[in-house]
Amino acid sequence: MQLMTQNKLKILVRDFSISPGPRYISEGPWSGEKFRTEFLEPELKKAISEDKKLVIDLDGTLGYGTSWLEEVFGGLIRTGFNLDEINKYLELISTEESYLLDDINEYLKDA
Amino acid sequence: MTNIKGKNIFKPYKKKHTYSNFGNNIFDKKKLAEKLKTTYVDAPISLSLIKSTKETIEFINKLQDLCDKKKPVFVKIKHLQFLDNSGITVLLSVVYLFKVRNISFNGDFPDSVYCHETLLDSGFFDSLKANKPPISDYTIGKRNQVFTKAKKEVDASIGLPIQKEVSMTIWGEKRALKGLQRILVELMHNTNNHADLIKKGEKHWWLSISHNKTTNKVDFIFLDYGIGIFNSLSSKPKDDLKWSKLPEYIINFLKNINKTNADLLQELLEGKIHMSVTGKHFRGKGLPGIKQAFDRNSVKNLVIITNNVKADIQSKNYEIIDTQFDGTFVSWHLDATSDNLPWTIIE
After folding, report:
1. One CATH from 3.40.30, 3.30.750, 3.30.160, 3.80.10 for B1-133
2. Nearest chain B alpha carbon to A95
């Protein structure tokens, strides 16, 4: 799932699942909680320790519920990452649904 | 007795009986005692949550009450004159509720050929003949025609066949329908999280999809028999308030004190007020998420019925209905003008 290009790490959400699901693991498969705890947080910690950008590519899935996105990105704040380091190290790609980038910024601020 | 498309749907028990039933033999002596206890319920002439909202909700409420009391039911639909996908979904889900509890459910056939054929295509009669249905994942009907599914968990993977089949019906090729996926996930999530006050994942959601290959249009019905949006919100806990937002909560409370549920639903959907059943400040984004998908032209004719509110989002008509629906009903459709993207999914 994670790729490394030059000074960037990259996660393709579609490699996690083409059908991102609910917020929590207990609610169904391919949850935001699972993605955050098993893939995003370890990679973000690695990116921070290696001073590299972590690119999250949101394209190529069937689409997202708000809960999945909020749990993934808002959940980073709630588990101890601060907004400044997220803004510094996390880079989001969503060419298919560009409005997701604004939504995610709101989730990060509101978490 | 009845012959539709050359198929015998059922056989009469005795020739002298002209009284038709769904196929179960209610005159059997062994079932006499059960028959004596059977309650007869008249369906409304028009069975549609959209067009005959009050009558259809009252019909559902009566059947739910009988189901709760484990009373056998004979539903009279002989006089049915109008039936749409919402009515079919109601019937399919009600039959399921009875059968899963091993309660007898029977009825007569509609005289209207249109209603009869519509029911036939939906798989309704098959559902009556079937044994006790599975609790976790239940599917009835034919893909690409009228297809109904019942499940409890949030299963976003159902979006894959749905997006492929819907886009083939509308555009003749696979297209990505991300707004549709957003709505499906939000609704499944809502049922899983909020339809039951005590435990998550207790209530089924029902999704019925009807493809019209002549008009290149696909209708969707989503239904649950939970407690509904407002009953759910009124039970929200107050123990996870974000104290920095306390002034906002107080202002919202004062602003909303004289509002009806119709007003509140509109403001919830438009994101003007924020409420979450969980009491967690970061939750409660599902309803605005559905409205956003509608605003992006992902779907059309979005209608929501919950508790005592009926909302036609397209016409911005939010009204109080003179009855109480314990559940959430949502309908919409997609057509050739609906928002879509090239198919980039690698399966």
Report:
1. 3.30.750
2. B341
